[in-house]
Specification:
Layout (H helix, E strand, L loop, with lengths): L2 H11 L6 E6 L3 E6 L7 H6 L5 E5 L2 E5 L5 H12 L6 H10 L3 H13 L3 H18 L9 H4 L4 H16 L1 H13 L3 H10 L14 H11 L4 E4 L2 E4 L8 H20 L2 H46 L1 H17 L6 H7 L10 H22 L3 H15 L4 H11 L1 H20 L22 H25 L2 H4 L35 E3 L3 E6 L6 H4 L6 E8 L2 E2 L4 E6 L5 E6 L4 E5 L12 E3 L6 E2 L4 E5 L1 H6 L6 E5 L7 E3 L5 E3 L4 E6 L13
Length: 675
């Protein structure tokens, strides 16, 4: 490929460098943020033999060039055509700015609340423990602390700690939101602290006339400010999310604008001062009061809709909750749940118990697979994932078992729908956030715990029996034994050091070996199931993909490393028999810039089958919001007849057979490639 020529053709076809707002690249494709997409000459791109396809995704126009070529084409675009080079994060930000507003909003909420959730969950569980200790009628006519007075002070301390995250929520949200909006995190925390200052009447007491009167009598202060001809109530924003988000967003806009105007010492001294001064007045005079009402109406509206729809509303929400988890939208729910909590003046959270029903249903479905399958590997994953889901962590069960087998996932959804209807019918509500599963009973309003447990039991039975019956009727769906035809032995766990790769000796038959083994322990799937159209369409070549379970990524062939990105997210290999493979570790993981990846080989090194290419913290990648599905494709497929003997739809260990590349003509044994 003439990289300079292709670079010029690409720039011209997309409307010139002036039409490219930002440019970046990954292992296989150019990622361009286009100012005016109407200027793109799609036909020219389609007719270019050096390009493998184009598509738009994530707000970017992506052009598939291929591994080993895309970086050189990109370099020529920047050096010779004045294309604006930006970091991957900057390109992503610019692309997102033009994306679907709803998706951007949901992602923003998730980005802000995911870091805050541990504090909220811990506080919620402690709050639930306080409720258990003080609830009358739960363990008898009297509460625990009434029966055992010596525990009173212990309970008081538990209550103090439990309420901190909610009472000072604006501080946590202000810090996290400022980070998300690109402002100074400590200014965000300071503004949040101002919104819950002890000199303000607590939001918890604003509807209690007696408590309010007592507070102002104690402080000997007026209950209002006279500002700009307006009377502004001195009321705090405890446990309020929307006012804090809007105030922090405005604060960040002001701060970033001042940074552009002020420089040096003036910027250092005046920007924080002016930012907090302007934001403070806006927060308490305009933004806070308006968004407080908006927040209240939103909370009341959602609760009204739920109670009005009754059983039907609970059924719909319960049925679709697991599907919502798959999309990641559930991460935005805390913004709705927090105002519903009784400690924040709400009537109780209905989302939490419905989420618990859905999680238990998916866990029960996975456990049914555990009892029905004869596949030892699938049994292990289903057992561990099922137990985890029952206690509130559903990802292993959903992604590792139920979604792969499909019908267990759907049956779990149906059982959750029944549970959601029951939650609405019996008006089961939670008083705190917590682990949405069986142990979530401590977060439930004490008087509703028996009803909650009864519904959890019903949902578990429905999902378990449903999947068990389905598996009995369609036993092959769950009981096919793993084909042990793969003859390669994985040595990944013992070989973490690649320092001697240049001395690797290949087996005598390596030059004629056209088999490709699994580089990861996980679930093998067809490329058509990969959530990326470039791979799913087969543009980059035929092959298969794996949804990882654990462990490192190892070489699936004996051969040479052609491409090894420093970020560890993609590798190009050539086997001793001439097969060129692209292994792309996860989707869009180039954006992590090497975080959670520990590369073990470099380009030009010889590797044997089973040798570690990169170690990956899969859990951290998932938590960061990236899909871990890893395609393994034949990039020089034109040199072969195709692939055969695909082993998809099952658990594979590193070294198990994945697929075989079929030669156009019988392959004679050829000597291994030289070191």
């Amino acid at each position: 490929m003439d990289h300079a020529k292709v670079a010029g053709e690409v720039v011209e076809a997309v409307g010139g460098a002036s039409n490219i707002s930002a440019a970046a690249h990954c292992a296989t494709r150019l990622r361009l943020v286009i100012a005016d997409e109407s200027k793109i000459n799609q036909q020219a791109l389609d007719d270019n033999e050096d390009l493998k396809g184009t598509f738009a995704a994530g707000g970017m126009f992506q052009i598939i060039v291929g591994p080993g070529d895309v970086d050189q084409v990109y370099a020529n675009m920047v050096a010779n055509h004045g294309v604006r080079e930006v970091s991957k994060d900057e390109a992503k930000e610019e692309a997102e700015a033009g994306g679907n507003i709803f998706s951007r909003f949901v992602k923003m909420i998730a980005d802000i609340f995911v870091p805050v959730l541990p504090a909220l969950i811990a506080g919620g569980l402690l709050m639930a423990l306080h409720s258990v200790l003080t609830a009358e009628g739960l363990f008898g006519e009297r509460s625990v602390i009434q029966m055992y007075p010596a525990m009173t002070d212990y309970d008081a301390l538990i209550n103090l700690v439990s309420s901190a995250a909610f009472a000072f929520l604006p501080v946590l949200v202000g810090f996290s939101a400022a980070k998300r909006f690109g402002g100074n995190t400590y200014l965000g925390a300071a503004m949040g602290a101002a919104m819950v200052s002890p000199s303000l009447l607590s939001a918890y007491s604003m509807t209690d006339a007696a408590a309010a009167a007592k507070f102002w009598a104690y402080t000997d202060q007026s209950s209002v400010w006279n500002l700009f001809g307006l009377e502004v109530s001195k009321v705090g924003y405890q446990a309020m999310v929307i006012p804090t988000l809007v105030v922090t967003w405005i604060m960040c806009l002001i701060e970033k604008s001042l940074h552009k105007v002020l420089k040096g010492t003036a910027d250092f001294l005046l920007t924080p001062l002016i930012t907090l001064l302007i934001t403070g007045f806006l927060a308490f005079v305009v933004v806070g009061p308006i968004t407080r009402e908006l927040s209240n109406y939103l909370t009341y509206g959602i609760n009204w809709a739920y109670t009005t729809l009754g059983i039907f509303g609970g059924l719909i929400f319960g049925f679709f909750y697991s599907a919502i988890v798959v999309t990641g939208l559930h991460q935005s729910f805390p913004a709705i749940e927090i105002p519903l909590l009784p400690s924040n003046g709400g009537v109780g959270d209905f989302i939490f118990p419905i989420a618990s029903m859905a999680n238990v249903a998916q866990g029960a479905a996975a456990l049914a697979v555990f009892f029905k399958t004869r596949d030892a590997k699938l049994k292990g994953l289903a057992g561990a994932g099922g137990v985890s889901a029952v206690f509130g962590i559903t990802e292993p069960a959903i992604f590792g078992v139920n979604l792969r087998l499909r019908w267990p996932f759907f049956i779990g959804m149906a059982a959750a729908g029944v549970g959601g209807a029951g939650v609405a019918l019996l008006d089961v509500r939670s008083q705190a956030l917590g682990a949405a599963g069986l142990v979530g009973l401590v977060s439930i309003v004490p008087t509703s715990i028996p009803r909650y447990l009864a519904l959890e039991g019903l949902v578990f039975i429905l999902a378990f029996v449903g999947v068990f019956a389905y598996a009995t009727a369609r036993s092959r769906s769950l009981t096919d034994d793993v084909d042990d035809a793969g003859t390669a032995v994985s040595k990944a766990d013992a070989q973490l050091d690649s320092g001697t790769t240049s001395a690797v000796e290949f087996p005598r038959n390596a030059g004629a070996d056209l088999s490709v083994t699994a580089p990861i322990h996980g679930i093998a799937i067809s490329l058509s199931e990969v959530g990326d159209r470039t791979f799913a369409s087969g543009v980059l070549g035929p092959g298969a993909a794996i949804d990882p379970v654990e462990g490192p990524v190892v070489s699936p062939v004996d051969g040479e490393v052609l491409v090894a990105f420093p970020t560890g997210h993609a590798y190009g290999l050539r086997s001793a028999s001439g097969i060129e493979l692209l292994i792309h570790v996860g989707m869009d993981t180039v954006e992590l810039d090497g975080k959670y990846f520990t590369p073990r080989v470099a380009a030009g090194k010889r590797v044997h089958r089973g040798q570690v290419l990169v170690e990956v913290d899969w859990a951290a990648v998932t938590r960061a919001g990236y899909r871990t599905t890893t395609p393994v494709v034949v990039s020089n497929a034109a040199s072969f007849a195709g692939i055969v003997d695909e082993h998809v739809g099952r658990i594979v260990e590193r070294g198990d057979a994945l697929y075989t590349v079929e030669a156009i003509e019988p392959v004679a044994a050829r000597p291994p490639a030289s070191a």
